[in-house]
Design goal:
Blueprint lengths: L4 E2 L2 E2 L4 H8 L8 H10 L8 E5 L5 H9 L3 E6 L2 H13 L5 E4 L12 E7 L7 H11 E14 L5 H11 L7 H10 L4 E9 H5 L18 H16 L4 E9 L1
Parallel strand pairs: 3-4, 3-6, 4-5, 6-7
Antiparallel strand pairs: 1-2, 7-9, 8-9
Length: 250
């Protein structure tokens, strides 16, 4: 695993580095069970083109290709995630178009996809760019399904700083801010399909599959510490942060 080096100084690993190093599948709330539920609400046929934006290890993309007749394109920026996804698709003999690239500058023509699925990814980007890019590559009447971390109230500067230090994000947006930014990017219809805090999700009787991890990698304390920091955030702020599933159309 390579770390970013600036001026000869090795930078600490990011949360995404830790997920990639250990090959964590379904890191978003609800895991694959929630993804399955959301997809069941959509009309997906052999004519549907679907983009898994921020595909990670490729778990969701693989599930979709196995259970739906649509074409699937997967993109992720992290090189280790792309390698893991490529290995998964090869082993399972799945014809999925896998691309390494940024959601902030998608390497696809305008109007390429009918459905774009984004699972806990946008918050790690500059949403002023990434939301406009999703809109650009979406076909008329297309659908974006975005599952994103959301604050239940305005967070204090200290709380936002704590989030920023663990996740390397600009901020945790409220539901209203997410809806506003989606509208500002050009989406006409924005629905809230599901809403939970971290704590309410735990007690909502939602079927949750265990997060799978690669047990064959060498133990790395820096990576483990980053995952521990994430767990601490969930425990400390479980009543004031959560997630929403935003369904947006053109």
């Amino acid at each position: 695993m390579r770390f970013l080096t600036i001026g000869g100084i090795k930078m600490k690993p990011s949360y995404q580095d830790a997920l990639a190093y250990y090959g964590v599948n379904g890191a978003h709330p609800g895991g694959l069970s929630l993804t399955r539920y959301l997809l069941q609400q959509e009309k997906i046929t052999s004519a549907t083109s679907l983009l898994d934006a921020g595909c990670g290890t490729g778990q969701t993309s693989a599930f979709i290709k196995k259970h739906y007749p649509c074409s699937v394109t997967s993109i992720d920026l992290h090189p280790t995630m792309v390698k893991r996804a490529a290995s998964r698709f090869h082993k399972e003999n799945l014809p999925i178009n896998l691309v390494q690239g940024s959601i902030e500058k998608l390497p696809f023509p305008d109007g390429s996809f009918d459905i774009i699925l984004v699972e806990s990814v946008l918050i790690f980007t500059d949403i002023r760019h990434s939301l406009k890019e999703l809109k650009r590559v979406l076909k008329p009447n297309g659908v974006v399904l975005a599952l994103e971390m959301t604050s239940e109230r305005e967070l204090t500067p200290l709380e936002q700083n704590n989030m920023r230090s663990v996740y390397g994000i600009e901020k945790v947006y409220s539901e209203g801010e997410w809806v506003h930014n989606l509208a500002a990017a050009g989406f006409r219809n924005v629905e809230i399909k599901l809403s939970h805090t971290v704590y309410s999700h735990m007690f909502a009787n939602i079927e949750v599959e265990e997060e799978e991890m690669d047990v064959h990698v060498t133990r790395n304390l820096e990576m483990e510490n980053k995952l521990t920091e994430h767990a601490h955030i969930l425990y400390t702020y479980g009543n004031i942060i959560g997630y929403r599933v935003y369904r947006a159309t053109l």
